[in-house]
Amino acid sequence: MILEQFNKTFESKARLGIMSVLMVNESVNFNSLKELLNLTDGNLATHVKALEEAGYLLVQKEFIGRKPNTLYSVTAEGRKAFEQHLSVLEQFIKNS
What we know:
- This protein is of the alpha+beta class.
- It has a single domain (11-95), classed as Winged helix-like DNA-binding domain superfamily/Winged helix DNA-binding domain (Arc Repressor Mutant, subunit A), CATH 1.10.10.
- It is 54% helix and 19% strand.
- The radius of gyration is 14 Å and the shape is elongated.
- Pfam families: HTH_34.
- One of its GO terms (biological process) is regulation of DNA-templated transcription.
């Protein structure tokens, strides 16, 4: 059954958004992601942590002057998993 092929990590609208943004950008910082996706600090932090724990995101923390800056980018594993998930979604839509 096609529904069994869905990647549960990407069930959330926020995680789909995060991955979509990162698939077309080399890296994106926390504040930009938050604004683009209209998420709260806590909500974004929760979702990026889940994606990081799954091995789909790389997190880089740095300072610009005295301000902390967190950058996110997609790992090769994350890119592959997201592309597979999108392929399953496409199949599901075509078969519906």
